[in-house]
Design brief:
The protein is an alpha+beta fold. 39% of the residues lie in helices and 11% in strands. It has a two-stranded antiparallel ribbon. Strand 1 and strand 2 form a beta hairpin. The radius of gyration is 21 Å and the shape is elongated. It starts with a helix and ends with a helix.
Length: 193
């Protein structure tokens, strides 16, 4: 299902920006993977030269070792690395809060741009310069307000929230059938202890 032009463009954009990471483009309607780029990548024809330095030049071994250990060119970051879920966590948090009855569609929390104005560098909102002000669940989803969902998590509790994330499969393998897949991590109180 790969669109090779899209695959090449995704890789090129990551490389041009100097990023280490992955881009995955899906067709939701067709259930297909259109592109799955992981950077840094490597040219299999040059791998021995670039990363193993089989030439015997011992002076270059530390650089090759650094590239292998830091750049991790063999790691397919699209399937074998785990990342925080970002804004995809917000609808699940909203469902957990509403289902628990601890919030309603009218429950508001104030966004100052961070969870605690006395410590503005922790638990920030993406709109941290001004915040969103008072938000209800609809506004918080529309505005993608981090602070609102931090409050929802505090309100419903970690284990209740974790149960919802597990229902949505955040702790399971993605199921692509590709090698080296890793499951997500859903922290609980026991895990934190």
């Amino acid at each position: 299902t790969l669109d090779m032009d899209l695959q090449a463009r995704a890789t090129q954009l990551l490389q041009e920006q100097g990023y280490t990471g992955a881009v995955v483009v899906l067709s939701v309607q067709l259930g297909e993977v259109l592109a799955m780029a992981s950077v840094p990548t490597f040219d299999l024809n040059r791998y021995a030269e670039d990363y193993l330095l089989l030439s015997g030049n011992r002076a270059d071994l530390p650089e090759a070792s650094r590239k292998n250990k830091i750049d991790l060119p063999l790691l397919n970051r699209a399937i074998a690395a785990t990342y925080p879920p970002g804004s995809s966590a917000k609808p699940i948090s909203a469902l957990a809060g509403l289902h628990s009855g601890k919030i309603t569609e009218h429950t508001t929390f104030h966004c100052y741009g961070c969870l605690n104005p006395r410590n503005p560098d922790e638990f920030r909102c993406w709109n941290r310069s001004v915040g969103h002000g008072d938000e209800n669940v609809r506004d918080a989803l529309k505005d993608s307000c981090n602070v609102y969902f931090y409050h929802v998590g505090e309100t419903v509790g970690l284990d209740y929230l974790a149960g919802w994330f597990k229902q949505f499969g955040y702790d399971r393998l993605p199921g692509t059938g590709l090698p080296d897949e890793l499951p997500g991590l859903v922290p609980t109180e026991a895990w934190l202890r």
